Amino acid sequence: MNSKASEKELPQGPVILLGVLKDIHNLGILILKHALERGGFHVVNAGAMLSQAELIGAAIETGARAILISSSYGMAALDAEGFRGKCEEAGLKDVLLYIGGNLSVSRQNRKWEDIEDEFKALGFDRVYQQNVMPAQFIGDLKHDLGVAA
Hints:
Blueprint: E1 15-19, H1 27-38, E2 42-45, H2 52-62, E3 66-71, H3 76-80, H4 83-89, E4 96-101, H5 112-121, E5 126-129, H6 134-145
Parallel strand pairs: 1-2, 1-3, 3-4, 4-5
């Protein structure tokens, strides 16, 4: 992992793991990290260009209650295929999975609802467009985790 968070004293909030599967673009997770920390979460940035196994291993290591994946290059469906099943096989049956960003290279030719349905079918609990405001996903995350707003 690229984060030195494990060397710091842990904040009180739930652990949230951020990562990028097979994509080099990490701006999304940097924005998420700052917003989530301000929202009271303990955030671990696992980095970019990760395999599914690396991201799952980091979730186990940190005790993450949610995994947030950012994608910029439009191939997220290929990268995330089978991810929910691998999480469950690794004992992460209850981990929340969120994904957002530029999820599909063909997004201009597809309805957002179709893209969202595709990722929900892959096992993601929440799916966000690239222009989502941090307050929305932080509110959703607090609701889904049962954390006071």
